[in-house]
Amino acid sequence: MDLDRLRRSTLADPEDVDAAVALLLQRVRSGLLSETSARLAAGLGHPIAAILYPDEEETHLRAGIDLLCKRDQRLFACDCAARVLPIFERQRPGDGRPRQAIEIARAYAIGKASESALTAAGAAAWSAAAWSAERVASSVSSRVAAGAAAWSAAAWSAERVASSVSSRVAAGAAAGAAAGAAAGDAVGAAARAAAGAAERDWQKLRLASYLLGEV
Fold first, then answer.
1. Binning pLDDT at 50, 70 and 90, where does residue 186 land?
2. Distance between CA atoms of 4 and 95, rounded to whole angstroms?
3. What is the rounded CA–CA span in Å between residue 51 and residue 66?
4. In what helix (H) or strand (E) does residue 40 lie, and over which residues does it extend?
5. Four-point Cα dihedral 79, 83, 87, 93, nearest 10
6. Helix 189-211 to helix 70-91 angle, to the nearest 10 degrees?
C-alpha cells in the first residue's frame, strides 16, 4: 500500500490524515470499534483503515454485510438500489413503484414503516421488475434486450430491499442486482465489465463506511 498516494487521495493536509488514522486506532483500542470491523473496512478499500491495516486482502461484500446490524443491512441494500434506480426511471419515468419500495424500506429499517407496508411495496416493485423482465424476453433486438435487462435488474434491486426475506439476504441480493444493472447499462463487453467493477468498488467503500460507523 502506497502511504503517500493514500494521503494525497484522501485529505489535502497529511496532518489531517495522520489525525484520522490516530482517531481510528484509538476507537479500536478503546473497544468502541472492533478490530475485525476495522480490518474488513481496510480490505474493502477504506482509505484511512487501509493505512492502519495495509496488508489486508480484499474482502468479499458478504463478509462485511454479515457484521452489520439488521438496520444497517437494509439501509445498505437501499443505498445500492438507489444508485441504479435512474436506469429504470429513464425508461419508465412514470413508474414510481421501485422508488417507493426503496423509500419504504428505509423507513422500515429505522422503525417508521410497518412490515405490511414493506411487503406491499415489495410486491409492487416485483410487478415492475417482472414487467421489465418480460420486455427482455420479448425483445428481438439484442441491443434492446440488453438495455431492458439493465432496467429490469435495477427494478429487481429495488424489489429486494423491500423483500420480506432477511435483511442480510436483501443486502446481498440488492447489491448483486445493482452491479448487474450498472454493467448492463453500458455498451460493449469491456464497458460493461468496467461499469460492473466500478459499482462493486463503490459498494465496498460504502459498506466500509457502515462498518466504521461513518454513515
1. confident
2. 47
3. 24
4. helix 35-43
5. 60
6. 150
DSSP string, 45-81: T-HHHHHHSTTPPP--HHHHHHHS-HHHHHHHHHHHH
Distances (CA, A) of 147 to 27, 60, 81, 157, 191: 46, 28, 17, 16, 14
For 88-139, write each residue's pLDDT tens digit. Answer: 888 888 999 999 999 999 999 999 999 999 999 988 988 888 766 555 445 4
Phi-psi region of 213 (alpha: psi -120 to 50; beta: other; left: phi over 0): left
Is the predicted pLDDT of residue 57 greater than 70, yes or no? Answer: no
Do the beta carbons of residue 163 and residue 170 sit within 8 Å?
yes
Judge whether residue 2 has pLDDT over 50: no
Amino acid at 90: R
